[in-house]
Design goal:
The chain contains five helices and no strands. The protein is mainly alpha-helical.
């Protein structure tokens, strides 16, 4: 997803404004710190799989969020497509929160399938789908 967003940004010639670059950088650092704290037990865990999975959560979720902000800010200006991109950002944010909450609950052995945190993933993907429908409808309208 990160690579696809960067390709989209470059292919469309989007240029993120200064505030978008700053916000993206700040969010990257903040969410990286949060993910690092939550996933520390996994990063220092035994074996190969748990540290690798934890490293993925620590690195890729914050990077995805930052690149989404960078892309969405490039659409700033009040266009309908630009507004739809903020739904994508909201979806990625819910996805990030659900991932981190899931990891935390697993580490403290409190997670169970069907827990309320599972709604974070569903709502996140729902917002991304809503953005896709909005953009599709805009394209159909011409």
């Amino acid at each position: 997803m990160i690579i696809a967003l960067l390709i989209l940004k470059n292919a469309t010639g989007l240029v993120a404004p200064a505030w978008g670059k700053w916000l993206s950088g700040i969010l990257l650092l903040v969410f990286l710190a949060v993910a690092l704290r939550i996933n520390w037990a996994g990063l220092t865990g035994e074996g190969i799989v748990l540290p690798l999975v934890s490293a993925g959560y620590v690195l890729f979720d914050p990077i995805l969020l930052a690149v989404t902000v960078l892309t969405a800010s490039g659409f700033a200006g009040g266009s309908a497509v630009g507004r739809a991109w903020w739904y994508v950002l909201g979806g990625i944010l819910l996805y990030y929160i659900a991932n981190q909450a899931y990891t935390y609950l697993v580490f403290i052995k409190e997670y169970a399938t069907g827990s309320p945190i599972d709604m974070g993933w569903l709502l996140g993907f729902g917002l991304i789908a809503l953005a896709a429908v909005i953009i599709h409808n805009l394209i159909e309208e011409g």
